[in-house]
Amino acid sequence: MHAEWRSSSNSDANDPSRQYKMRVTYTTQRAFPYMMTRVRVSHMDKVILSPIHNAIDTILARCNMLTTQINNDPPRMNPLQQVIQGSVFPMVNEGPLRLCQIFLGEKRGEYPPDEVVRLEGAVCTFLDLCMRSGVVAVIVM
Fold first, then answer.
1. Phi, psi (deg, nearest 5) at residue 19
2. What one-character-per-residue DSSP string does 87-140 give?
3. How does pLDDT run across 34-67, given as a tens digit for each residue?
4. Exposure letters 59-79 (e unless 16+ CB within 10 A, then b)
């Protein structure tokens, strides 16, 4: 379960460099799903991801969605087109290009170097998947 966690300021709502994500992991007493409709939660773990971790997580999620659609046999064009459009031309949330501008641009020195390298790796994977799906011309433009 993921929940976006932002500061109370409205100006921070559209700034990915100030968006945190809370990741909550539940551990149950039995394997899930179980025959019963409710399973007791034995442990709950909360982790708050920093803005750069949130960016890495966002790009890797897009990579997973692209991989799933690319590996369909036979390829289904409508879902692939929707994933590509949501990744390359986002209408609602900031896309990978904006995340790169923020975290890999002029202010990259403000973030831990190992996290910047992880983000660069995630972006390279994303671009490779876009090339495999035939979107190279759109990204370069």
1. -95, 125
2. HHS-SSS--HHHHHHHHSSTTGGGS-HHHHHHHHHHHHHHHHHHHHHT-HHHHH
3. 777 788 889 999 999 999 999 999 999 999 998 9
4. bbebbebbeebbeeeeeeeee
The answer to whether the pTM exceeds 0.85 is no
Q: What is the pLDDT of residues 66-108, one digit of tens each?
A: 899 888 888 788 888 888 888 777 676 678 888 888 999 888 8
Of 115, 126, 116, 122, the C-alpha closest to 88 is 126
CA-closest candidate to residue 123, choices 94, 141, 103? 103
